[in-house]
Amino acid sequence: MNHSADVPTVSVDDLPSGEEYVLLDVREQDEWAAGHAPSAVHIPLGDLPSRAAELTELADDRPVYVVCRTGGRSARATAWLNAAGVVDAVNVAGGMKSWVTSGRPLVGENDGVAAEVL
């Protein structure tokens, strides 16, 4: 069954400006370390069910925008978060690839290596 039509989605360009939203990165640790949005929160997709409570506290009634590399995993995470009633989640179309294309900042955890989206 394809529920993608039910998943609220925004483009990177339509993200709110400023810090009044939570950006959740559901990629794996190696992807996160290579490059991520400076303000993002990292919870890999597989850890989401066990760490959902953290997200509820972080969100504080604000929407949570979910991002992965290109939008597939984040769509699944968004659907799950909304269905489970954890937070109001919105999928970021195009993921971190679109984030970089839009000229948004990227930071990495690997010393001496330029940040990149794996």
TrEMBL record:
Keywords: Transferase. GO terms for molecular function: transferase activity. It comes from the Bacteria. The keyword Transcription regulation does not apply. Residues 17-108 form the Rhodanese domain. CDD domains: RHOD. PANTHER family: FAD-DEPENDENT OXIDOREDUCTASE, PYRIDINE NUCLEOTIDE-DISULPHIDE OXIDOREDUCTASE. This is Rhodanese-related sulfurtransferase. It comes from Saccharomonospora viridis (strain ATCC 15386 / DSM 43017 / JCM 3036 / CCUG 5913 / NBRC 12207 / NCIMB 9602 / P101).
